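Sequence in, structure out.
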Amino acid sequence: MRGWQVTHKSVVEFGDAVPRPELDPDDQHHTLIEVRAAAANFADRLMIDGRYQLRPRRPFVPGFEVAGVVIESNHAPLAVGTRVAGVTDPRHGAWAEVCAADSRHLTRLPDELGWAEAIGVHTNAQTAWFALHHSGHITAGDTVLVHAAAGAVGSMAVQLARAAGCTVVGTASYPKLERVRELGAHHAVDNRSDGWPTLVRNAVGAVDVVIDPVGDAVFDGSWKLLADEGRYVVVGFASDGVPSIPANQALVRNLSVHGMYWTPLATAHPDLVERAAWEIFGLHREGRLDPCVTVVDSIEHADRRLADVTAGRVIGKTVLVWDDPAD
């Protein structure tokens, strides 16, 4: 089959003889999906470079996110022909014509939701929803600081926090600030400027929740902005730096730090996955959640699109499709 493979560290190659995954008879959740759309994510770059939390044995097919049609499954409720979106098996990812996934990491899609939209409003929105509601325990009236607010997860977090009745401060580089405002942030701040924490404090005072996909580059300023009993939610380390948590300050100010890694949480809490999915789909149906898909291109150009994402040249979500992107 056609697809991409990581053959050596940091090397990804396209070909038409990629081994097709086979259904594992011993795995009750194993599912095969005909890929209709995938994504290019910063996490895909980390996986290709061998710098991600998961390091599958090479060769493997990259591509964390998929939207497509079930063609085989050991999980009876997922009948052949079911439209799904979710996270793939690390060795048999979505940058190929067929991928594999755990049924617990897949969600049925409404019929009216297109494939590119499904990529936009599923995994990143689920990550943001879990970060806000499950880890951050937001309530209406909270003030939420969202970093990388024009990125894939951040753009969803801004919209979901706004929908939940929170005051939202979104940060991004200066050229992306107008987009952050368009997404619904009450305040947009350039977190690459000197003194950005002072700008946030002058605008809203302390914050109740921080959603951080960035890491070291923003941690110190964000930590100091937390109100007593504030919640710091770690979503990723796009700056390539892992901060050290000052536990003594967490103690005396009753601060909490939560990690948010969607895959194990989805496995442990399938009820929350379903709840999040239908809330997200409902907001999209009402026109209150923009999928933020700004780039749609052929999977055959995945390496180019990933380079744009990694370099920060993209605002929003990059979706890869097998069909003509114009269809």
